[in-house]
Design goal:
Chain lengths: 274, 340, 270
């Protein structure tokens, strides 16, 4: 005689469960606890990049009379130190890796769980970025203090910390929005390289946007990339401009919406047409 | 006795794919219309060669692929419409695609999955330790997944599918790549979870042994259609009657002579099908023979005794006939199947 | 005597033919997808143009810095993309030695009757970086003020730079023999490509020394590009000596690692 199992119904609820997001985030933290060398390698790499680039700018600014577009040698060191921290925290090949999940169809597995796909991906990526960001901040503040000197405005630095977090939030959301295009286009995953370069220049990672020619500067400041690097850098360089944080918040809403909708529609399409 | 509502029910379920670009666009019929019902608590093997439509079917039943025609209900839900509700009540294991983290021990992955399923800590802990005990796998839960063997990993993956106590588990080719011991342990787990937890098991495979060791019933698919649907007990009497004995002798023997001897001693139901004599160069001549035994007529043991009389056997294996042969057999006797 | 020699010759010929065929297959493999091929090359060229843009903006503002002008920088970028592109494009596995060791791909290579290191190196062609090579030569011809003499020096220094860069990658990659993980190799790769992207003269004392001696990034780009502009036999000799030295060291490290690996590859066994 076959006994019919009475399904133990787990609590019903919305597809976005905060506890699940926390768990996705925390799971990535556990990965670091198991393999902490990843953080060491990240810190060393971050320090190298920051040292070279801030060294270059400092020499250049000092050689040309002490200020450039409103940045003195100290400010430029803090600027570069901060923008590098913002960008290097995020997994370098996020677009490629997550795009591959979609192109290969492995993403189907995520549909077998009672949870919306994008929020979990987002939380997991932030879990990966968070500890890296913290390491970068520790290393970066030490470096900028020793090599660049103290920034007079402590309030600006505190705001820069907030802006750093927002920058990573915007960046990851924007990259996942790019990834979602893979549901429709085939070669999206190879565009990570170009996306990265856009962030480098138009996002202000390699140089303060003020260095760009006037038109380019206007364009760059109208694009989302500035929210990913320039804003925290600008604040850390001692400019308290609260409007910049507002811009970050705005881009965050736009990018999270784009990515969430992209994943939702893309997955629905995949289930239907694949 | 009233029949309970089926756990899985499909009616003329179909799926076509369009492949190729522009001028070369063509349509492939992956599943041409399958209908069957699975009772709650049943263990069903969904068997077919590669490309027969097994994965496509299982994807439609788990709601991650829309059909192009027909209907299906799983636990009363239409999978592709009520996917989210369904995921709370089914478990699914797709081949070797992992739901666990390589760097982390399974227990950490279970915590994550528990949170996704909305299980509270106490329930999760209880389920994990219950499953760990039941499947003697608890000692694996605290080692990083990358240090586990494939067989151990698959057992942990199966536990991951069961944390939320699903009513049905779908398994797509779970035994691929496992060694003999691993396969057997995994099959035992499936039987165990079915018998003691009452979980309905839906298993796809192209390994005939999975039918015999796991299933109550087997559906054989080929080219997207069901070509056979019967209980395993019945199949054992018909399609799975033959076993193969592969023997290696340490010297060259005349296999026709061996065949003649077996036929003389045992009568019909024992046939030689093997490659026959294989002579290695020089002195080290060995030969292999494959003997097919109709287990309805002869006990394997009896046939073995007759082969071993020769005394110079160096290796010997008893295996199921390959799936291709079973399928060929089904086609040869169309009345035995339920082909429409 | 004669017999021995002929056997050796045959073995060498076989090896070379084997490697050449492998290399041919690697190229065909990448060329198989024409559209992807063109796309990836353009992606890389755009990437390189972004860097050029950065330096344009930089020198536009500062004119020259510690004796470096945009013209010098163009030559440096041409050398850098040319040599990095050659190594990562044609010998794509050079940067993946550590990964190949730790994921067991090396085992498959060891089963073949060709030397493992050269085989691994020619086994993977990466189109993306072939784009770098194309860009490097075009950049030099377009903006590097080419004369026959400069072009000859350019080609020669690029060859040595590539040898040095490839040798360094294999050398750091061999760390995986000892530690069983690929992180050190990755970090070494990132470090040398990062530092080689800048003229090391810009930096002060200790940093500069570090970049010439420890991570020889200065010899990958700065020294070769200075040689194109102003040939100095002493620096040329230093470049040639260092690159041959590092390549030999890499070869030695790989051979040594291999002995360690075959005798005690415990960590690959589960």
């Amino acid at each position: 005689m076959i006994t019919v199992p009475r399904p133990v119904a787990p609590p019903e609820g919305s597809a976005v469960r905060p506890a699940a997001l926390v768990a996705a985030f925390a799971t990535q933290l556990r990965v670091y606890r198991r393999a902490p060398t990843a953080l060491l390698v990240h810190s060393v790499f971050y320090l190298m990049v920051t040292a070279v680039l801030s060294g270059l700018w400092r020499v250049a600014v000092a050689a040309t009379g002490g200020t450039m577009a409103g940045y003195d040698p100290t400010a430029i060191v803090w600027y570069i130190t901060t923008t590098e921290a913002a960008i290097l925290g995020v997994r370098q090949r996020l677009i490629e890796d997550e795009g591959e999940e979609i192109v290969s169809g492995r993403i189907e597995l995520d549909l077998l769980r009672p949870a919306a796909v994008f929020p979990l991906k987002y939380a997991a990526q932030l879990g990966e970025a968070g500890p890296k960001l913290i390491c970068s901040i520790v290393v970066g503040v030490t470096w900028a203090r020793l090599f660049g000197g103290a920034i007079a405005d402590a309030g600006a630095l505190a705001l820069a910390g907030l802006a750093l977090v927002l920058a990573v939030l915007v960046n990851v959301a924007a990259q996942l929005a790019m990834v979602a295009l893979s549901f429709w286009l085939h070669d999206v995953k190879s565009t990570w390289f170009l996306y990265q370069k856009l962030v480098f220049v138009l996002g202000g990672m390699l140089l303060p946007l003020e260095v760009l020619p006037a038109t380019a500067q206007t364009v760059a400041k109208a694009l989302p990339f500035m929210a990913m690097a320039y804003v925290p850098g600008r604040l850390a360089a001692g400019h308290v401009e609260l409007g910049l944080l507002g811009l970050q918040a705005l881009w965050l809403v736009v990018m999270v919406t784009a990515a969430a909708v992209g994943y939702r529609v893309g997955l629905a399409r995949m289930v239907r047409h694949r | 006795m009233d029949e309970p509502a089926p756990a899985i029910e499909t009616d003329n379920l179909q799926r076509t794919f369009t492949v190729g670009r522009r001028s070369r666009r063509r349509t492939i019929e992956a599943v041409t219309g399958i209908s069957f019902a699975v009772r709650p608590g049943e263990r069903l093997a969904f068997i077919g060669p590669n490309g027969a439509g097994k994965s496509t079917s299982i994807k439609m039943l788990t709601g991650i692929l829309h059909p192009t025609g027909g209907a299906a209900r799983v636990l009363g839900l239409v999978p592709w419409n009520d996917r989210l509700a369904l995921t709370r009540r089914i478990g699914a294991l797709f081949g070797q695609r992992s739901q666990l983290w390589n760097e982390l021990p399974p227990r950490d992955g279970y915590r994550m999955l528990g949170a996704i399923h909305g299980l509270d800590t106490a329930t999760l802990e209880a389920n994990v330790s219950d499953l760990g005990e039941r499947f003697a796998a608890a000692d694996l839960f605290d080692q990083p997944v990358r240090t586990l063997s494939l067989g151990q990993r698959m057992r942990c993956e199966l536990v991951a599918c069961l944390l939320h106590r699903p009513a049905i588990v779908f398994l797509d080719e779970p035994t691929i790549g496992l060694d003999l011991v691993g396969k057997q342990q995994f099959r035992d787990m499936l039987v165990e979870l079915n018998e003691t937890l009452g979980v309905t098991v839906f298993l796809t495979s192209h390994d005939v042994a999975d039918i015999e060791h796991v299933a109550h019933r087997a559906i054989v698919v080929n080219h997207g259609e069901i070509i056979h649907d019967d209980t395993v007990a019945a199949m054992r009497r018909s399609l799975l009657r033959t076993k193969r004995i592969e023997v290696t002798f340490d010297h060259a023997i005349d296999t026709t002579e061996l065949g003649r001897r077996l036929a003389r001693d045992l009568g019909t139901g024992v046939t030689m099908t093997g490659p026959g004599i294989r002579r290695e160069p020089k002195a080290s001549a060995t030969s292999t023979a494959t003997v097919e035994v109709d287990t309805g007529r002869h006990r394997i043991r009896t046939v073995l005794d007759h082969i071993l009389v020769d005394g110079r056997v160096v290796d010997l294996t008893v295996v199921d006939p390959p799936l291709e042969q079973v399928i060929g057999e089904i086609y040869r006797r169309p009345t035995a199947g339920d082909r429409s | 005597m004669t017999a021995t020699r002929s056997i050796t010759t045959t073995a060498a010929t076989t090896t070379i033919r084997g490697l050449a065929t492998t290399f041919g297959c690697s190229i065909r493999e990448t060329m198989a997808n024409r559209r992807g091929f063109a796309l990836q090359i353009s992606v890389m060229v755009v990437n390189d143009l972004v860097w050029l843009l950065f330096w344009l903006l930089f020198f536009d503002r500062f004119g020259s810095i510690r004796g470096w002008t945009l013209d010098d920088m163009v030559v440096l970028l041409a050398v850098l993309t040319m040599s990095v592109g050659t190594v990562l494009g044609l010998f794509g596995n050079a940067r993946r030695i550590a990964v190949l060791i730790s994921d067991g791909t090396l085992d498959a290579a060891l089963a073949l009757p060709v030397p493992a290191l050269p085989y691994l190196l020619v086994r993977h062609v990466n189109v993306l970086f072939v784009g770098d090579m194309v860009y490097g030569i075009v950049l030099f011809l377009a903006l590097g003020r080419p004369t026959p003499a400069r072009l000859a020096v350019f080609v020669a220094v690029c060859a040595f730079s590539a040898l040095l860069f490839g040798g360094f990658l294999v050398l750091v990659g061999c760390s995986a023999f000892a530690v069983g993980r690929s992180e050190v190799g990755d970090l070494g790769f990132n470090a040398i490509t990062l530092f080689a992207s800048y003229p090391v003269d810009v930096f002060a004392g200790p940093t500069k020394l570090f970049l010439y001696a420890v991570v020889p990034a200065g010899f990958v780009s700065t020294v070769p590009s200075r040689l194109v502009d102003e040939f100095d036999p002493r620096w040329a000799l230093a470049l040639a000596g260092l690159s041959i030295g590092v390549a030999a060291l890499a070869r030695h490290a790989f051979a040594r690692g291999l002995r360690h690996y075959t005798s005690g590859a415990v960590w690959t066994a589960r």
